[in-house]
Amino acid sequence: MPRRSSEAAKAVARITGSATAAMAIIAALASSAAVAQTQPLIGAWSRTNYTQDGKPWLVTYLSFTAHGMVGLKAFYTGAPQPLVEVGQYKTDASGTSIQMVFRDFSPKQCVSVAGMTGCEPPPIPLNQLVSRDVTFMGPDTVRFSDGAVYVRAPAVP
């Protein structure tokens, strides 16, 4: 085991009082790092859309888990809260194509008039297959076939 992991395990063992728990934590961290190396989409990605005069009007985050979950969080300038969509995804064996199905979103923008309720649909339709080709332009930049370019983000706010 590398020296750094050994030192981390000892520190966790001091905190938890258990070397076994410390090793389990270190193994989990190493495993998630290994998954991210073999499945490069895993993690958080962001992109910013700008107006013609250079002002940001939309910041979008995509997050992918090792367990096939995808999340989209869109922050519109001036909106009181972000739009969130969640679903599942899968990639082909080569990692050059992705298929996503979004299952739910919030907030629901619904209006009731004369006993009838209508809701604004989410930007990405629910329960419909969305397929994109994926091109990695480096370890921290990905381009989807719809032209969207995302950069790796430290986390989704």
Could you explain how this protein is built, in words?
α1 crosses α2 (19-38). The longest helix has 20 residues, at 19-38. The protein has an 8-stranded antiparallel β-barrel. The protein has 2 domains: 3-38; 43-153, Lipocalin, CATH 2.40.128. The protein has helices at 3-16, 19-38; strands at residues 43-50, 56-64, 69-76, 83-91, 97-106, 109-113, 116-120, 129-138, 141-144, 149-153. It is globular, with a radius of gyration of 20 Å. It is an alpha+beta fold.
Task: Based on the model shown, name its key terms.
157 residues, alpha+beta, Lipocalin, 8-stranded antiparallel β-barrel, 10 strands, globular, disordered N terminus
Short description:
With 157 residues, the protein is an alpha+beta fold. The protein is 22% helix and 46% strand.
Number of helices: 2
CATH class of the largest domain, named Mainly Beta
What is the residue-averaged pLDDT? 79
β-strand number: 10
Task: Tell me the helix content.
Answer: 10-25%
